[in-house]
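Data deposition worksheet. Section B asks for the primary sequence of the deposited chain exactly as it was used as input, without tags or linkers unless they were present during the calculation. Section C holds the resulting structure in token form. Section D is free text for depositor observations; keep each observation to a single sentence. Incomplete worksheets are returned to the depositor.
Section A, Depositor: J.P.
Section B:
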Amino acid sequence: MFTLHSVRPALALACAFALTYSIAARADDMATFATGGYARGLHSEQLMHKIDTNGDGMISKDEWLAFQEKAFAMLDKNKTGTVDAKQFISADGGDMASFATGGYARGLRTKAMMHKIDTDGDGTVSHDEFIAYQTKVFDMMDTSTTHKGMLGKEEMFATGGNNHH
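Section C:
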């Protein structure tokens, strides 16, 4: 018969495994959800400071989405609400690299990232697809239980980034 003393170590081991697995799975999810270049481009203090418009050291979902709105507007040079492959992947980074960071711009503007964001597979990225994708990225990074809905340095760098400069 099982006693509390015999079950406790097994329960502790199971909890430790589940926690370890969920943290590793979250990093794996980001790696499969985004390309390595894009994920690396997100994880820089320079980009964090650009998105953190109120300077509190945290990125709110509103700040994140406002930044992504501006990024899409820079991609959508024709102001049609849709970006084709030529605009999205353009080697001419234009204002994007100075607005964001070079790593973010290079990581985002790839054929692989375009295909991940283009959920309907029509060969274009609409405003709605872009913002829905970026919302999912924020939600995947939003892992804190103490400041839910906000990204601090721990969250910005937790899923594979080590560009702390």
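Section D:
The first strand starts at residue 59 and ends at 60.
The CA atoms of residues 58 and 73 lie 24 Å apart.
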